[in-house]
From TrEMBL:
The keyword Signal applies. It comes from the Bacteria. GO terms for cellular component: outer membrane-bounded periplasmic space. The lineage of its organism: Bacteria, Bacillati, Bacillota, Bacilli, Bacillales. GO terms for biological process: D-xylose transmembrane transport. Residues 1-19 form the signal peptide. This is D-xylose ABC transporter substrate-binding protein. InterPro entries: Bact_Solute-Bind_Prot2 (IPR050555), Peripla_BP_I (IPR028082), SBP_2_dom (IPR025997), XylF (IPR013456). It is found in: Cell envelope. Pfam families: Peripla_BP_4. The gene is xylF. Residues 49-306 form the Periplasmic binding protein domain. Keywords: Signal.
Length: 357
């Protein structure tokens, strides 16, 4: 019986070895280990990031899109980008598409700070982490928030304008109420204004959000502010350069452009040109390249499963979100060259073209 078992085992061994040799010879390999096909392996290993954007309507978001793509690709990963044209339903659908495509990580610029919480949940169910880019996703278990210090942006605007107009009637033209940043910018502004309001030096005579950040809505707001105050306004803070554009259009219609100082934000080319022309007194420059590089670096790290430690925590209504906040830079007529132009954000030629005309 024992002999029988040994014989059977020996036969099985011979069969296995010959089957193995047969398969190796079919592969054109003489029994050596088969090296993995390199190109194919790289393809399947490549990290894929999904980038869900609110809109591409404003100049800055085109920079964000292009520079983020560049930064992700320079790290050997790839990115699929979808923009939703300011529509919540479209953004949710697009983010779902990215999740079902099996991206390794999702980066989101939410149109609506609350609505995108549903996507964070869905992504997590699929095992995908989510980074909030520039704008926070509220009431969600978002994995990381990468942005600028947005409260600081508002402080910079108010500091610049109160230096110029320490007393008088102020108008605040806010951004989109659905964007958490609009609240942070406003908080920063009022942090500086409040002591002056309390002292009776400043009165805020008009304060409204501008739906979807559009210049058209800011124009309507500013027109209403002028009318309600018989044009007697001393200073305007607009939440960004797009809304500042609408404000300045309303002022121009009353022959007041350049006479009432207006602050904006983003260092959009049109905003910087208005500073040169004298219809806007300042903007806030946020180096987008630095933001995209930071976000790309952290996105790829997280997608690979590496732990990311951020230096700040920000409450989003549900959790303390790990946050990385970069520094904004206040820009006026005097430092355009050393900031925006020195960084190549806009060329000297473009910025000063308007005054040469
Ligand atoms: C961004 C601003 C931008 C605004 C409108 C905000 O969330 O931080 O830079 O101007 O959205 O798109």
């Amino acid at each position: 019986m024992g002999k029988m078992i040994k014989l059977l085992l020996l036969m099985a061994l011979i069969f296995a070895v010959s089957a193995c040799e047969e398969s190796n010879s079919q592969n054109g390999n003489d029994g050596k280990a088969v090296p993995a096909p390199k190109a194919a392996e790289k393809e399947t290993d490549k990290i894929k990031i999904g980038f869900s954007m609110d809109t591409l309507l404003e100049e800055r978001w085109l920079k964000d899109r292009d520079l983020f793509k560049e930064a992700v690709e320079s790290l050997g990963a790839e990115v699929e980008i979808l923009a939703a044209n300011g529509d919540d339903a479209v953004q949710i659908e697009q983010a779902e598409t990215l999740i079902s495509q099996g991206v390794d990580l999702l980066v989101v610029v939410p149109h609506n700070a609350e609505a995108m919480a549903a996507i964070v949940k869905k992504a997590h169910l699929a095992g995908i982490k989510v980074i909030a880019y520039d704008r926070l996703v509220k009431n969600s278990e978002i994995d990381l928030y990468v942005s600028f210090d947005n409260e600081k942006v508002g402080e910079m605007q108010a500091n610049a304008i109160t230096k110029l107009v320490p007393k008088g009637k102020y108008v605040y033209i806010g951004g989109a109420e659905t964007d958490n940043n609009a609240h942070l910018f406003k908080r920063g502004v009022f942090k500086v204004l409040q002591p002056l309001i309390d002292k009776g030096d400043i009165t805020v005579v008009y304060d409204q959000w501008s739906k979807d950040w559009t210049p058209a809505n800011a124009l309507v707001n500013m027109t209403a502010a002028l009318k309600a105050n018989q044009n007697k306004i001393d200073a305007v803070i607009a939440a960004n350069d797009a809304t500042a554009g609408g404000v300045i259009q309303a002022l121009a219609a009353q022959g007041l452009a350049g006479k009432i100082p207006v602050a904006g934000q983003d260092a959009e080319l049109a905003g910087v040109q208005r500073i040169v022309q004298g219809t806007q007194i300042m903007t806030v420059y946020k180096p987008i390249k630095a933001l995209t590089e930071k976000a790309a670096e952290l996105a790829v790290m997280m997608a690979k499963g590496d732990e990311v430690k951020a230096d700040r925590k920000i409450n989003n209504g549900k959790i303390e979100v790990q946050s990385v906040l970069l520094s904004p830079i206040a820009v006026n007529k005097r430092n355009i060259d050393q900031t925006i132009i020195a960084d190549g954000f806009h060329s000297k030629e473009e910025v000063y073209k308007v005054v040469e005309k």
